[in-house]
Amino acid sequence: MWQPKSPQFVVKLTKHCNLRCKYCYEYPFLSDKTKIELPQIEAMLTHIAPTLVAHGIRQTSFSWHGGEPLLLPPDYYQAIYALQKKILGGAGIEFSNVMQSNLTLLKAGHLQMLKDGLVSGLGVSLDLFGDERVNVAGKIMDDMTLNNMQRLLDADISFGTISVLSHKTAPFMANLFHFFDEMGVSWRVLPIDLTGFEGQHIGNVLTAEKVIEIYKMLFEAWLNSKNAISVEPINEYMNAAMNALMPNSAKHKFDKAQDDSLFIVNTNGDLYAEADAYDDKYAYGNLFTTDLDSLLESPARKRAIERANMIVGSTCAQCPHHGDCSGFRMAEATTEKLYWDKDGQITCTIIRPMIDYIKERLVEVGLMPLLEKTEGGGV
Ligand code: SF4
To answer: Which numbered atom of ligand 1 lies nearest the CA of 320?
Structure first.
């Protein structure tokens, strides 16, 4: 039975954006001002709530995405929150909202909305290097983002940051780490993984070897850092490595049929899992018109489950870390994130070597001596 602890719905409220970041996978749609209207939000929530209750799920979250969600006015978010309280709260479901923004625009009403907890988590996209985050006129907008980050800090509103890892930003990853570590804010590094139009990423995608080299460097920087901020995906690999070193750690293997928990809702209401976003073959159906239970039973979801099982079967099933690492990232990898070996087999080219590396280093630097002893020496 489908029963994730807390499913998350990543909702594309609008594709409209004031920036034209050159690597953005929504690039072709960034001038489209269509937004999800409030009656559609109401329909979406009405189609989600009974399914969650029927499956014994009492908690969910929404991630407001774009485009740029802060182009939409504060009263829009207040109205959404009121609908959530009525429909989800009324059904006994706890909910929370997070948002992904370029933070170049932050009205007083938006700041208040963050203070009031209508949106309780904010991810700010900022590269600082690479010259790819530009506005329609081609101007870099980082100063506005930095000013607004300062306003958040002054108002004691916590936020995380996200930077894209590309050929252009790769040389500056150490600088970025130290910048965010000094500031004491969490940071996610996101290699380019989706394409908006043919040829968009030519010359800008890193090889797996280069990504691993950068991740190792970031792990070492983290080990020696002042504030030891949370850095994803390093943190995730470290958790798996620590699980592997701890004799009685809890094991979990991701099973998409039961654990499917990350859904993308497009501006037209179409629902996808993360791995298959915008691929019609895997569109579960429409959440504005159809209840979530029916979408979970759809032939497209069955195909998506088969796809995930096929990937996990050729990677995680043979992996010594399976259980310490849930395999979620492979199961939900977009086609652009997959690597094949010379025999045509899908391989876990980045996560597994990173867990091996961190595991070894944790023992070397003496963070796990007791565990090493308990395990009879050596890992
Ligand atoms: S193959 Fe990769 S994703 Fe799968 S369990 Fe191993 S390390 Fe994790």
So the answer is: 6
| Pocket lined around ligand 1, Cβ cut-off 6 Å | 315-316, 319, 321-322, 325, 327, 329-330, 348, 351-352, 355
Mean pLDDT of 317-330: 96
Q: At CA 60, angle to CA 94 and CA 43, rounded to 5?
A: 95
Q: Kindly report the protein residue whose alpha carbon is nearest to atom 7 of ligand 1.
A: 352
Q: Which option is the CATH number for 8-358: 3.20.20.70, 2.40.160.20, 3.40.50.10140, 3.60.15.10? A: 3.20.20.70
Top mutation candidate among 328, 338, 351, 355 for ligand 1, by most atoms within 8 Å of CB = 351
What is the C-alpha to C-alpha distance for residues 331 and 350, in angstroms, rounded to an integer?
A: 14
Burial class (CB in 10 A: 0-12, 13-18, 19+), 225: middle
User: What pLDDT is attached to residue 376?
Assistant: 43
Q: What is the residue extent of each domain of the chain?
A: 8-358
Torsion of the alpha carbons at 78, 16, 263 and 102, rounded to the nearest 10: -80
**Which residue among 211, 259, 314, 321 has the greatest number of ligand 1 atoms within 8 angstroms of its CB, and so is best to mutate?**
321
pTM beyond 0.70, yes or no:
yes
Q: What are the φ/ψ torsions at residue 359 (nearest 5 degrees)?
A: -60, -50
pLDDT at 294 over 90: yes
Give the tens place of pLDDT for each residue, 41-78: 999 999 999 999 999 999 999 999 989 999 999 999 99
Site to probe by mutation for ligand 1, drawn from 315, 326, 339, 340 as the one with most ligand atoms within 8 Å of Cβ, is 315
